[in-house]
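Why do we care about 3D structure at all? Because function follows from shape, and shape follows, mostly, from sequence. That is the central idea of this module. The next example makes it concrete: a single protein chain, its amino acid sequence, and then its structure expressed as tokens.
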Amino acid sequence: MVSSHLELHKYATGRQARVVTAMTLLKSHLFRYQGHVSAALILGGVDLHGPHLFTIFPHGSTDALPYATMGSGSLNAMAVFEAGYKDDMSREEAMALAARAIRSGVYNDLGSGSNVDLCIITAGGVEYLRNYEFLQAKTYSRVFPVKYPPGTAPVLKTKVTLSEVAVIEGVESMETDS
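And the structure:
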């Protein structure tokens, strides 16, 4: 929905849309549905005014900070950002800090997944680093289909019959105040 609006904006104006335009479209959509979309978003990008990072809450409110966290592990990740963030970090320092923040969220929250993915946004483009760190590898290999040996579960009955059925006919009226 937002990407199509941004494309139309680009064709109408002849230039790339600003990041704040995307943020406004997203927050308007979320506000329209009063949180029932249940989307908590982080929007980042680079435009003619430089880099931007926004958080967009499910009810449409927004915030702009130098770092952002959302989701079930966000409190742990925010603690790491607050302790380790400094202005003018190198790319490697920023990647290490972001990975440490995500790792903190994953390890301290059951609903936060099992790996670290990074997305690096620069004026030159976007770079996705999937499985930058794989934190919790499986310790077993599941075989499909699962075959249970005979005798694994005891059989209590082999035949089930329906012996008695009670049918009650009629209508029972509901009590009301009138």
